[in-house]
Amino acid sequence: MSKKRALEFMFGLLGAVLIYHFLIFFEFIPFDKVWAGRLNSVEEMKTFETFSILVNVFMITVLIIKYQNLLNHKPNRIIDVLIWVFALFFSLNTFGNLFSENILELVFGTLFTLIAAILCVFIAKK
Fold first, then answer.
1. What's the structural domain count of the chain?
2. pTM score > 0.85 for this model?
């Protein structure tokens, strides 16, 4: 798989996750079914989801910059370091998802974060 293809796959994954977080934020998905079942109120959910949406937008922005740099054959060490941080974030999140009380979050969340971690490592490595 090329880095370009890995980036395109990440755009699809993060786009789907962004839609998922908006569905939670606007309460189309009950908040007690996410965040490992540990949220206690709508206000708490709004705070967590706002943070998640902002983090996902940031990750997509960084990956867009990486994609453009890749097309123009321009290295950017700062972007590569950020993608390594994303890989670490997704790796830690994989372990966190293993403790979810919701079976869908356990299975799909774990699978998503594992795939995202692997793709980020692939994208960031030289």
1. 1
2. yes
Neighbour count for residue 24 (Cβ, 10 Å): 22
The C-alpha atoms of residue 114 and residue 91 are separated, in whole angstroms, by 6
Domain that holds residue 31: 3-124
Distance CA 102, CA 68 (A): 38
74, two tokens? 């321009």
Q: What b/e readout covers 84-104, taking b as 16+ CB neighbours within 10 angstroms?
A: eebbebbbebbeebeebebee
CB atoms within 10 A of CB 42: 10
**Could you read off the pLDDT of 16-59 as tens digits, one per residue?**
999 999 999 999 998 887 877 788 899 999 999 999 999 999 99
Per-residue pLDDT reduced to its tens digit, 75-114: 999 999 999 999 999 999 999 888 877 788 789 889 999 9
Cβ-Cβ contacts under 8 Å for 46 (sequence gap 6 or more): 25
